[in-house]
Design brief:
By secondary structure, the protein is mostly beta strands. It contains no helices and eleven strands. The strands form two sheets. Strands 2, 4, 5, 6, 9, 10 and 11 form a seven-stranded mixed beta sheet that branches. Strands 1-3-8-7 form a four-stranded antiparallel beta sheet, with no helix packed on it. Strand 7 and strand 8 (78-83) form a beta hairpin. The model has no long low-confidence stretch (mean pLDDT 95).
Length: 127
């Protein structure tokens, strides 16, 4: 298996920015689409965004489009989530996840399509 470790979370005021990192180790030669999910207290874990293996395609949930971007550095086995114009409703525990085989892009929203998960990093946005 692979191991994923998120970092970069913290407390930020509304309108501010954070960049989350997800470092992958272990069986790094079997890394395809990577995604970001988030979970707020009392809510289900929801899809935030994803990026293809080569980084040539990204997609996001509607609530973060235009504010969040995803990039990856395959030489460092790291994926990034840049979050700008943060809102209090962005407050959640953010997880990165990886697909270890080539799968349909149309299922990137589904938690069940990912094979390994990080432990999460907390993002708190104050009013």
């Amino acid at each position: 298996q692979v191991q994923l470790v998120e970092s970069g979370g913290g407390l930020v005021q509304a309108g501010g920015s954070l960049r989350l990192s997800c470092a992958v180790s272990g069986r790094t030669f079997s890394i395809y689409t990577m995604g970001w999910f988030r979970q707020a207290p009392g809510k289900e874990r929801e899809f935030v965004g994803a990026i293809t293996r080569s980084g040539d395609r990204t997609d996001f949930t509607d609530s973060v489009k235009g504010r969040f971007t995803i990039s990856r550095d395959n030489a460092k086995n790291t994926v990034y989530l840049q979050m700008n114009s943060l809102k209090p409703e962005d407050t959640a525990l953010y997880y990165c996840a990886v697909q270890r085989t080539a799968r349909s892009w149309y299922n990137i929203w589904s938690r069940n399509e990912y094979d390994a998960w990080g432990q999460g990093t907390q993002v708190t946005v104050s009013s």
